[in-house]
Amino acid sequence: NAGVTQTPKFQVLKTGQSMTLQCAQDMNHEYMSWYRQDPGMGLRLIHYSVGAGITDQGEVPNGYNVSRSTTEDFPLRLLSAAPSQTSVYFCASRTRTGGAGANVLTFGAGSRLTVL
Amino acid sequence: GDSVTQMEGPVTLSEEAFLTINCTYTATGYPSLFWYVQYPGEGLQLLLKATKADDKGSNKGFEATYRKETTSFHLEKGSVQVSDSAVYFCALSDRGTGNQFYFGTGTSLTVIP
Asked: Do residues B87 and B11 lie in contact, with contact meaning Cβ atoms separated by under 8 Å?
């Protein structure tokens, strides 16, 4: 099925470890983004990309890196994990062109990260 | 800046009760408005949307009307079911900010039989 695929679904890290959350979409969407979801705070934008080779920071970018080498993939890297990064992470994408599907975010199922 | 404020939860209703979840927004431009739903263990899914004033979005018995004069987009359903138990997020997307999305904090709904 077409959509946004995130891996892994669950991950436990120790403080200081690094890891990459993977995100892939097969809808040819130009725009991709990463959010974190924390209780009582809704979704907060970490980083986003409007196309291959272009990335920008969102509301809470510190501690995270991204790259966009292809239209399909948008990995999120934690270089040195901290307990404050314990959260549920969502990747989302959308097309930037017109039509009924324009400007509608499609979300992945989420990745639950625990940092001890 | 742009923001969304929605009714705090959790909300618990009996099956067939009427549901209202309030949502108000602040935007610099002329935003599109959305309701997303998150079922347990899943990602967010679009429930409905409205792109201009007085538009009514509807889906699965849920409705919301874009009210520019009150900057509101309240979600309603006339008769909730147990299967509607989920977290509901109000959101806006503003062309003035490059179509970035801004989400409310979410309202958890539990429907009991």
From this structure: no
Residues 6+ apart with CB under 8 A from A111: A6, A7, A8, A9, A10, A11, A21, A88, A89, A90
List, for residues B57-105, the tens digit of each pLDDT value.
Answer: 999 999 999 999 999 999 999 999 999 999 999 999 887 666 788 999 9
Q: Cβ(A22)–Cβ(A6) under 8 Å? A: yes
Match 């309202």 to its residue by tokens. Answer: B107
Query: Which member of B42, B99, B104 has the closest CB to residue A42?
Result: B104
Measured between CB atoms, does B32 come within 8 Å of chain A?
A: yes
In 3D space, the residue among A42, A92, A29 whose CA is nearest the CA of residue B102 turns out to be A42
3-class secondary-structure state, position A2: coil
